[in-house]
């Protein structure tokens, strides 16, 4: 198990902050009566980067969102099957989605810093919005740690009180990552985090992900196969047969194997570019 | 090819990139920028001369000038620039004329109010009421203060109710309750102001008897008129806040009410404030409901819960409708009060734009 960050110098947010694993068993995700994702069983390993690849519309984003119950924001969605975080069922009747999301964070495709808040406030948003009482010194430490962790500290340390929206696209996305990591979640979900960024910014984020996995469990959905090959340890390939069918997990294995010698022909066809 | 009378049967297709050059030009020279204006001016002069012989009529002059100018410009542009441009210019001229027509009443109104009301823009007008004033003199202090108090109370009541209703409708509402609520808000936007006034009157009359007149009754009527405006504009502003911000907040494990209170509302706040200012500008001049609820009063009354309270629209009405002898001072005061009302509305509109520009956040990418 990864060393806990709670023991590190001041500014720790929760007593946990240990990377956890997610076990998914027979997960089916419905939009109303439409089955979007069918019978997924997989394990997300702690302190590893798991990439989910597949062509458009095959359910990988839907699946990702179901891991922190974000899909529930659309009315009429439901799941069957189980998703557990280190053994805790996140879909238990007594489970509060708000608390689940405090432990499983998410970074989105388009950077979305809060426009009314400064860079400092954006980074601390997970704490401030929840009215967590903290001494200023402590919060300063949390913010600095998160921004350093996101490789953004040097660029913004002189303008922490400037609005968060005044940064470049790549910087905004790093700010969103800092914001997500400031609350020290157990798992970090990333939904195509580099799609809206130029190659330089993309590279910066991929390097960041490589570092982040030392502390967090990371799941990243990506359209870009090469990114999955570069940045992940484990890759899962999702596919649908035709439009209207549910998405299924075809193969899940180490990234190296998927891209060089996959077990299933379907996977091989996709990664070699024969379709998709 | 002169000695090949028949072209070859299977001719080769032309090499790509070597076809005959297309000519994109559709006409000759463009007509100059001053062209249409010259046509309008010329036509107007000719028509004016013509009409002065048979009987001058400004409406005929205007309509005639426009129609003839459109015709001439169409022919000229069509010849010089091409059919499509000719049509384009003619339509432009037509729409421009309609716009000018629409501006006429507005300009006329402003000119009239300013020119008539200017004579009373003196210090006495703004510092005295009508207390003990029989003919000359007097002022609108009581009416202006009354308008501010009545409208202020209405705003204090309508804004929280309106904003919270909008938050419910946009962020939480679903199903039948939402549909019914939206329907009733829509109905409320159409309530005639006199009906709102009658409602306030009936409400207080039931409790206090029919002779009751209070400043707060006017506020109640104005509140009824303001609430749907605030709800609609706030809803619109909430809609503009991108869902991505809400998602980002939820993904941090922030509950819904906190997201609404600390992320959505602050982001929409500039727009909401603008909407509120515009709602105030809408109701501040309503005369009918105030006529039957607040009554008229000659002195300054600062207590909305005690007796009649003067206000600008009713003051304007009573001064104009019931002048004494001689009527001139009364008419002058009426115009002066009307001018003050228009100035207040304009200041509100300008302030709303300033707030929106300074504090508004560019939410549309």
Describe the structure.
The complex is a heterodimer of chains A (276) and B (365). With 276 residues, chain A is α/β, with parallel strands linked by helices. Helices cover 32% and strands 23% of the residues of chain A. In chain A, helix 5 packs across helix 7 and helix 7 (169-182) packs parallel to helix 8 (199-212). The longest helix of chain A has 14 residues, at 136-149. Helices cover 71% and strands 0% of the residues of chain B. In chain B, 36% of the residues are buried. Chain B has helices at 35-54, 58-81, 83-117, 123-127, 141-172, 175-189, 193-208, 215-240, 243-251, 256-283, 288-293, 312-321, 328-359. The mean pLDDT of chain B is 89. At the A-B interface, helix 2, strand 6, helix 4 and helix 7 of A face helix 9 and helix 10 of B.
Give the topology:
The complex is a heterodimer of chains A (276) and B (365).
Chain A: E1 22-31, E2 34-44, E3 49-53, H1 60-66, E4 77-85, E5 88-89, H2 97-103, E6 104-107, H3 119-123, H4 125-128, H5 136-149, H6 153-156, H7 169-182, E7 187-191, H8 199-212, E8 217-221, H9 225-231, E9 234-239, E10 248-254, H10 255-260, H11 265-271
Parallel strand pairs in A: 3-8, 3-9, 6-7, 7-8
Antiparallel strand pairs in A: 1-2, 1-4, 4-5, 9-10
Helix pairs in contact in A: 5-7, 7-8
Chain B: H1 35-54, H2 58-81, H3 83-117, H4 123-127, H5 141-172, H6 175-189, H7 193-208, H8 215-240, H9 243-251, H10 256-283, H11 288-293, H12 312-321, H13 328-359
- Morphology call of chain B: flat
* Distance between the ends of chain A: 37 Å
CATH topology of the largest domain in chain B: MetI-like fold
CATH H level, superfamily name of the largest domain in chain B: MetI-like
Shape of chain A: globular
| Rg value of chain B | 31 Å
- CATH superfamily caption of the domain at 44-58 and 102-271 in chain A: P-loop containing nucleotide triphosphate hydrolases
| Alpha plus pi helix count of chain B | 13
Instruction: Quote the CATH topology of the domain at 44-58 and 102-271 in chain A.
Output: Rossmann fold
- Portion in strands of chain A: 15-25%
Class of secondary structure makeup of chain B: mainly alpha
Work out the strand percent of chain B.
Answer: under 5%
Distance between the termini of chain B: 62 Å
Helix content of chain A: 25-40%
Low-pLDDT residue intervals, each spanning 5 or more residues of chain B: none
